[in-house]
Amino acid sequence: MPRIAPSLLFNELSISTSYAQDRATMLAWMHGLVEVLKTAYDRGIQSFRTGADFRKLQLMEDDYNYTIQSWCDDDGYDIDNVTRDFLLDYFSRDSYIKPQIDDLPESNIIKRRIAKGFISGYEGAPAIGLGYAYLLQHVAISFQSEECWNTSIIKLERLEPADDDEDTTIVDVKHADRVTHLDIHHPKREYDGNAKHPETGDAEDYIAIMNLDRLKAQQALFEGVQPEGMDEIFAYFEGRFYVFRPHRVSVGLYHGYLVKMFRTVHKKRVLKAMLNAGVLDQKDYDKYIN
Length: 290
Hints:
Elements: E1 7-10, H1 13-16, H2 23-42, E2 47-49, E3 58-60, E4 63-67, H3 68-73, H4 81-91, H5 109-116, E5 119-122, E6 125-126, H6 128-136, E7 139-141, E8 153-160, E9 167-176, H7 179-185, E10 190-191, E11 207-209, H8 214-223, E12 233-237, E13 240-246, E14 253-259, H9 264-276, H10 282-289
Helix pairs in contact: 9-10
């Protein structure tokens, strides 16, 4: 089923309304952005969505010509080659802020909202990155340029649809300008590669030993959904269901199992969470709920 993979979306307001006053400040901003990007990448977020002009954005107030691309090319700031190559690769992925929706079904809510017209604003200014972050339910990221961006949630004006009968609503957008914010939205998830047999008892009726290799199990864990009120993460991967249970000691470490059948008490909650997250479409949900 077509699905828009988790991504980070750049909040252009964090640089378009305030430039760095000196090089030390500019370097601190870039360091903060890179730290968030690298942490997100390590947690399975492969896409960084920006405007087409991202690399051309001005960083310094007193130097119109010093852009993000200038920083990437600057040998004077001891940027190691690994970091530089990572950034240039990450910056080039899904460079368009607007999601590609052609392959989504007509019933998809994101496709329908974009077709109707979707406008968003923050304190009176158009907010493209924040708006699409809300629409996708992904995370917007900002430079640490103003105190207003030092928050894990941003209040956004949503105007939808864009016509004379606009309905203005204040909505919450997931946001990060530092790693501590990202930890809230995308906590560390690491698969323990030591396959474990189910514990004795009726657990064997519901789960079995993991049948995926370590890389695929890690991918399934990244893509999994944690239903509200549950510690486990559930994934639908290559046509089968999996459950990941947190390690009893190490935070962010998980054991994984193949799901043979859902417990009746959990089935609806798990499948509904997957439907809401776009992991299952309505057809698959109807198939498995019965």
